[in-house]
Write a structure and sequence with these properties.
The strands form 3 sheets. The protein has an 8-stranded mixed β-sheet, with helices on both faces. Helix 2 runs parallel beside helix 3. A hairpin with a 5-residue loop joins strand 2 and strand 3. The chain has 5 helices and 12 strands. The relative contact order is 0.14. The protein has about 240 residues and is an alpha/beta fold. It has one domain: CoaB-like (Rossmann fold), CATH 3.40.50. Helix content is about 35%, strand content about 25%.
């Protein structure tokens, strides 16, 4: 299948982390496996993929050591939320993307201060004050008005109705075209339940594995990208008149 041939896709994936001192940090549990699978399939479908990923998370097999350089894959490793935001900003300013898939697990809170050097052990307690981070997803639409935007919403152990409502709220606030809603309790080695919500705010499909999520997302991305390309072609003569 080559339904994304010649299209440019920007993908974020994996965890972010924040230092507490020179050797300790907080992070999240994202492995980046799903993001890597989506990017790998996008490459197979002919897309040019810019892949921004958290340190030590999984990357597309095409970019793994020993596999050589894939001419349509650009890898960017980041560490902190600020690193991810800066990389995303730089890439969006630097060129046009047909689609953006924002699957990175961005920390919502980071330590307000970083202790210099290594904090001494032996203390009875250590209080770390956390402050909120920037909402990266909220900046994407500002820089990429015409791109197809796919977002992810993760909750833990909430009722189905609450999960979907949370994902719809994200869709509205981020002006996303597609949102994948998933619950950590339904993500396992053998399976990954994901509810795919469309621009109308309804659940359009439910996947049971990472492979199914990958296929459904990229099918929707390809359809939306081609639909917008056709709309642009029909509007072009009107601009010339």
């Amino acid at each position: 299948m080559s339904d994304l041939s010649g299209k440019r896709l920007l993908m974020t994936s994996g965890p972010t982390r924040a230092p507490i001192d020179a050797i300790r940090y907080i992070s999240n549990t994202s492995s980046g496996k799903l993001g890597a699978m989506i990017a790998e399939e996008a490459l197979r479908r002919g897309a040019d993929v810019t892949f921004i990923y958290g340190r030590r998370s999984e990357i597309p097999a095409a970019g793994a050591p020993g596999n050589g350089h894939h001419r349509r894959l650009h890898l960017i490793e980041v560490d902190t939320v600020d690193d991810a935001a800066a990389a995303l900003e730089r890439e969006l300013r630097g060129g046009h993307f047909d689609a953006i898939i924002h699957a990175m697990a961005v920390l919502d809170y980071v330590p307000a201060e970083r202790s210099p050097g290594k904090a001494k052990s032996g203390r009875e307690d250590w209080t770390v004050r956390l402050v909120p981070t920037v909402k990266i997803i909220g900046r994407i639409r500002e820089r990429a008005r015409d791109a197809v935007l796919v977002a992810f919403k993760l909750e833990v152990g909430v009722p189905y109705e609450e999960l979907i409502a949370s994902a719809v709220a994200l869709k509205d606030s981020a002006d996303a075209d597609v949102v994948v809603a998933n619950d950590l309790t339904e993500i396992m080695a053998e399976g990954h339940v994901g509810h795919i919500i469309g621009s109308d705010g309804t659940v359009q499909a439910t996947a049971r594995t990472k492979g199914e999520i990958t296929r459904i997302i990229l099918d929707k991305v390809a359809a939306l990208v081609h639909e917008r390309a056709k709309d642009a072609e029909t509007q072009e003569p009107m601009r010339e008149m």
